[in-house]
Structure formats: C-alpha cells, structure tokens
Amino acid sequence: MTNHVPSGVSVRGLQETLDALEKKLGPAKVVKVSKQALKLTGKYMETEIKKAVATYRDTGATVDELIVSTPKARGGTVTVKVGWDSKGSGQRFRLVHLNEFGYTPHGIYANHANAVDSKGFAFYKPGGFGKIRQAYDAARQPSLELARVELRKLVD
Prior knowledge:
Structural class: mainly alpha
Oligomer: single chain
Order of helices and strands: HHHEEEEHH
Radius of gyration: 19 Å
Number of helices: 5
C-alpha cells in the first residue's frame, strides 16, 4: 500500500507503520484500518477548518455545510476529503472560494493582493482571505501524526 503525504509534510514512522501493518494484517485489512484512522483525521481537519471559517461567520452556512467524505481507497492510496459540496445552499463552495482567494468587482482572478484588473479596479481581500489555507497548514502535520498514532495502536 502506498502512502501519499502532501508535499512539505513528513511524518516519521508513518510508512514504517503501514508496512508493519501490512505484514501483520495483510493489504485488505490495512485499507480497512487506514480508513478508520483517516475518518478520525478528517474529523480533526474538519474541526480546525470550522474554527477558521467561523472567524468570518455571518449566517453560519459556511461552517454548517463543511463536510468530510467517507474515506476511499483508490490505487493503493486511502484518502478522505474535507470541503463543501453541492448540498445545502448548493453554492457555498463558490462563496468559500471568493473568501479564500479574494476577487475584483468584475470577477477577474488576481494572483496577489495588490493586483488591479484591466478596468483599473483593485483586488479585494475579504475577512476570510487565506484563513482556510492557514488552518490547513497549521493542522496538517498534527493530523498526519494523529493518523500515525492511530495506525500504530493496531501494530502494537
């Protein structure tokens, strides 16, 4: 079973833990326990992102509509997704995108905060600008460590 760790993140012992689990339990069982560990990790990430988006809360829909997918195994990698889907308002992910990345009045995407669009309008940085990325960056190492600890419990 391969282990996908986002770039810039390293957790010592995660691959060794997965290898030991595979030797002890077999590949099918490793997928099952990996899903259990990722379910817990997804809930942790959900909590951290909810805290971040709550700082610019208005109606509460952005916080309420955050979802954690069921862990899925594809190509030997087990993943879980945390984000917004089309349930609820059906458009929340669009608003989250504007809050996270900013915008101009004419919908022109700018790749930095001092940008000006072709009509001379400034780039807007809403209150939630970059909050999700900050929460993700702060929580990814602890969440991977949490997954490693949960998997390690099954080896010992």
